[in-house]
Structure formats: structure tokens, C-alpha cells
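User: For a teaching handout, I'd like to show students what a predicted protein-ligand complex looks like in C-alpha cell form. I'll give you the sequence and the SMILES for zinc ion. Please answer with just the structure.
Assistant: Understood, here is the input followed by the structure.
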Amino acid sequence: MFALLAISGSQGWSLTKNTALVVLVLLWLATAYWTFKDARRRIADPWLIGVATMVGLVPPFLGPVIYMFFRPPEYLQDARERELEIKAMEERIAQLDQRCPVCRARVEPTYLVCPVCTTRLKQACVSCGQPLESLWQVCPHCATPVTPALPLLEDLTTRERERAPRTKAGD
Ligand SMILES: [Zn+2]
Ligand SMILES: [Zn+2]
């Protein structure tokens, strides 16, 4: 009777021991998986992610703590967003700091002509007189279509060529 109790007792003990072991292993794998997931969000290099995951696995439970000491302080996505923000800010500053292409004098975006060297910077809208950017097809202030006031050099030469035979024919 005592022997039976002892056997069943030892069996129960081994069952709890096994259950505890399984839970411990699951917990160990879960912490290692957490390390892998966290590393993937913070590290771009797949080799370093592998190393971080190995540290997360061995030593068990202590590994993730060691990893937390050495992991990059921010997520890759946050770093990317910050870089984009800095780039946008630089572009805004560059737009504020516009300069004349000829004499490098500082000019405002509203200037039509450089006040220092009188270089033509922008075309004015024929309807409302607002300065127009070179790529604009229509005036954003009054919706008047933009017609190039100054014909390009190529256009001038082709017109000359077209005009030349006509004068000859007239003669
Ligand atoms: Zn100038
Ligand atoms: Zn206009």
C-alpha cells in the first residue's frame, strides 16, 4: 500500500516536473522568438538578425536581456521616417534660399527679374501678373493658360528657315 502510494506519488511528481519542463521550454522559445521579431524591426542586416536571435536562444532567458542592452535604440521605420522628414525640411530650406542663376544674389520666389543683374527669372501671368514657374501650364492664381512669351532659340531658327523660302518665292 505504501509502496503503491510512493509509486503514484513519484509518477505525479514526474508529471509535474515534465509539465514544468515543457512550459519552461515553450517560454524559452517564446523569448527567443520575441528577440527575433524585435531584431527584425530594428536591424536591417539579416546576418546581425541571425546573431541577435542566437543570443536570444543561448543563454536561455538571459539572452534576450543581453540583447536588450545592445539592440539599436530605434525601429528601422522610425529612422526612415526621420530621414524623410529631414530631407523634406532641407528641401523647404532650399526653396526659401533661392538664388539668381547668374550672379548668385538671393532672390524671393515672387521676383520676376533679379534686382542685382537684371536677369529674367520668371515669366509673369498675362492676366494677373503673378510670377509663374517654368513648368506651369496654367496660372494657379487666375486659371489663365500659360503661353510661352519668349520663344525658344530652336523655335526662332525654325521660323527663320520657314520664312526664308517664302520671301524668295515672293521675289
Ligand atoms: Zn542676378
Ligand atoms: Zn494669372
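For the handout, you might add this sentence: Strands lie at 123-124, 131-132.
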